[in-house]
Amino acid sequence: MIGDYFRYGISNLRQQKLRSWLTMMGIFIGMAAVVSLISLGQGLESSINEQFESIGVDKLFIQPKGIFGAPTTEVNPLTTKDLKVIESTSGVVDAAGLSIEAAKVEFNDVVRYVTLIGFVAEDPLIEEVYSYDIVEGGKLLKGEKSKVVLGNAFLDEDLFERQIRIRDKILINDIEYKVKGFYETFGNAPDDQTVYLPYEVVEELYDVPDEYGFLIAKVDGDAEAIGGKIERKLRKSRDLEEGNEDFNVQTPKELLESFNAILNILQIFLVGIAAISLVVGGIGIMNTMYTSVLERTKEIGIMKSIGATNNDILGIFLVESGILGFIGGGIGVLLGVGFSKLVEVGAANAGYSIIKISFPLNLIVGTLVFAFIVGSLSGAVPAHKASKLKPVDALRYE
Amino acid sequence: MKTIIKLQDVWKTYHMDEVDVTALAGINVEIRGGEFVAVVGPSGSGKSTSMNMIGCLDIPTKGKVFLEGKDISRMSESGLAQIRGRKIGFVFQTFNLINTLTALDNVMLPMTFQNMSRGKRLKIAKSLLTKVGLGERVDHLPGELSGGERQRVAIARALSNNPEVVLADEPTGNLDSKTGKEIMDVLCNLNKKEKKTIVMVTHDNSLTKYAQRVIRIKDGKNVGG
Q1: A127-178 pLDDT, tens digit each
Q2: Contact list, B86 vs chain A (CB under 8 Å)
C-alpha cells in the first residue's frame, strides 16, 4: 500500500516537473547549507584537536602577556632566569625557550617578510614539539651558526620567482645564511612560511640577548595544577602582584577548550541561520501541496468514489510532500558534500591541508530523515484538508 | 431476486446561503440483484442526489439507505468509502479517470485501496481491459484515448473489485451517438452475460429502452412506475 503511495506520488510530481524542482530547491539550499556547515565545523574542530595532539597535552606555554606572535617593545620579555624558575618547579620534566621575530628574507632579489623562530638545536623538548620530518636536506645541529631550515612553503618556486634549493644562500635581515633543509608541511600556512634558526643566532641577529618569545614546559602530572604552581613561582621571581602578571601560562587543554567553545558557538549560530532557510523551504512545500490539493480536488473525489478512505488520501499527500522533502534533502546533501570538498581543496591550496572534512553517516542519514519529516509535516495540513473533502463536493469541483 | 440497495423515504436538504434547498423529498428506490434499472428525470429533479445516495457517496438528511439489508445512512465517511470500493462500481458522464495514470493503473487503483497484491491487481486489470476491448492500449494515458475508449477504461475500473452494482451516471452523455450505443451495449452485455446489476441515471428517455425497469423522478419524488 505505502509502496503504491510512493509510485503514485512520484508519477504526480513528474507531471509538475518545474514546480516540483522549484519546491525542492527551497529545501535543498537549506539542506546544503546545514550539511556543509556541520561538516566544515567538524572538520575544523578535528583539525584543531589534531594540531594540539601533535604538540601534546602535557605541554604548557608561557608567554609574555598581550602577544601571540611577535613581541612588541612594551612587553617584559621572558628570560633564562624565568626558564630556570620553570625548570625548578616540581612536576616540570623539561623546559625550553623559543624566540619569535619578524624577518626580512631576500633571495633572487625578491624580498619577503616572514616569521622567524629561533630554537635551541637538538634540544629534546624542541624536537618533540617540532616533530615534523625534514623532507629535503637535514635538520639544524648544535653549533651551526650560519645555517637555516625553512618551512615547507619555501619550496614553492613562485615565492621568490626561483626555486630555493639546499645549500642556496638567502639573506635574512641582510645577513647571508645557507639553507640546510626544508620541513614537511605542518598543515597550516603561518608555520609553513616560517624560517627556523638556532636560538643563539637570533639573539645576535636581533640584538636581544636572553629574551624568549615563549617558553615551553613539559610536565608530568596534572598540567593545570602544575601550571598554577609555575604561575605562582614566576610571579614571585618577577616580583609581581596577583592579577598584574605580565605573562600567562596556558595549557593546551585550556586553549583547546576555548577554541572549541568559540567554534561551537559559531556552528550553532550558522546552523541556526541555515535552519531558518529550511523552515522557509518547508513553507514552500506547504504552498505547493496546498496548490496541489486544490488542483486535484476532483481527483480526490474520484479516488474517494472508488474506495479511497480519508487515511488513503492523507497518506497519498503526505508521502508526496515527503518525497519532495526527501529528494530535496538528498540533493542538498550532495551539494553540501560537494561544497565542503571544495572548501577543503581550497584550504589545502591556501596552505591549510590539515583541514579534513568528514561526513559521518549519521549526519547524512539524519539529514535525509529530517528532510522527509520536514516535507511530510509541511504537507500535513494540506493533506488533512484533502482527506476531509466530501466526495460529492470534490467530484463536482471543476 | 434479493434486494441490494433500498432507499426508504429519503430526504436530502442542502444549506445554500442561508436557504434550505430540498433535493430529495421522500424518495423510495429498490434495486434488486441482476436488474438493469434506469433512473430517469429532468435536470434538477434530484436524480443526481439520488445517485449519490444509491452510490453511498452521501448520506441522507432523513430516511434510511440499506445496502444488502444494512443501514448505511449513519456510517462514517471511511466506512462508506470501504463499502463503495467493494460493492459499487462507478461510471461517470465525464469518465473521471485520473489523467496522470495509465489505463492499467486507473483500473488497478480501486483494488489498491482494497489492499490487493500488485500481482493480482495486474492480472485482473489486464483481463478487464481486454474484455472491454482495450487489451492493446493498457499503457496509454487517458489523454491518448478517445472518449469511447476512456469510458471503456472507466467501465473496466468500475468492475475491478467485482462489485454488486455498477452505477452509471449519464454514461453516454459525453459521447457521440454511435460510441454511446457501443457503451450501452457493453453495459447490457454485463447485465445479460455476467448478471451484473446496473443502475443507470439519465435524463435521456431514449436510453430507457435498454433497461428492464424505469424509475422516474421529479422534484425529488418518485413519479409513477
Answers
A1: 888 878 888 888 888 888 889 999 988 888 888 888 888 889 999 999 999 9
A2: 307
Q: What are the cell numbers at A360?
A: 559521518
Which residue in A291, A375, A290 sits closest to A331, CA to CA? Answer: A375
Q: Which three cell numbers stand for residue B221?
A: 419524488
Report CB contact under 8 Å: A306, B157. Answer: yes
Lowest model confidence (mean pLDDT) among A193-207, A274-288, A345-359: A345-359
Residue B70 lies in a domain: no
**Which member of B55, B81, B98 has the closest CB to residue A302?**
B98
CB < 8 Å to B109, chain A: 303, 306
Single pTM value for the model = 0.71
Measured between alpha carbons, how far is residue B31 from residues A80, B19, B69, B172, B193 in Å? 112, 32, 12, 22, 19
**Residue A309 pLDDT:** 92
Give domain status of residue B64, yes or no. Answer: no
Do the chains contact at A307 and B115, CB–CB below 8 Å? no
Cell of A368: 535525509
Instruction: Write the CB contacts of A326 (distance below 8 Å, at least 6 apart in sequence).
Output: A368, A371, A372, A375
Grid cell for residue A202 = 637570533
> A79 and A87 in contact (C-beta within 8 Å)?
no
| A81-111 tens-digit pLDDT | 898 998 888 888 899 999 988 889 999 899 9
User: For chain B, what is the domain count?
Assistant: 1
Give, for B223, the enclosing helix (H) or strand (E): strand B221-223
Q: Is B165 contained in some domain?
A: yes
Taking residues A259-275, report their average pLDDT.
Answer: 85
Return the CATH number at B201: 3.40.50.300
Find the chain A residues whose C-beta atoms sit closer than 8 A to any C-beta of B.
1, 3-4, 8, 11-12, 15, 298-299, 301-312, 390-392, 395
B49-67: pLDDT as tens digits: 999 999 999 889 999 999 9
Residue B2 maps to a domain:
no
Residue B41, domain extent: 33-58+75-223
Q: pLDDT for A361-397, tens place per residue? A: 888 888 888 888 888 888 889 999 889 888 888 888 8
Mean pLDDT of chain A: 86
A294 to chain B, closest Cα gap in Å: 15
Question: In a mutagenesis test of the B interface, which of A306, A316, A392 is the best target, namely the one with the most B β-carbons within 10 Å?
Answer: A306
Task: Work out the minimum CA distance from B110 to partner chain A, whole angstroms.
Answer: 5
Interface of B with A (CB under 8 A): 52, 55, 57-58, 77-78, 81-82, 84-86, 90, 92, 96-98, 100-101, 105, 109-110, 112-115, 118, 157, 161
d(CA A75, CA A120): 23
Q: Which chain B residue has its CA at the smallest distance from A389's CA?
A: B77
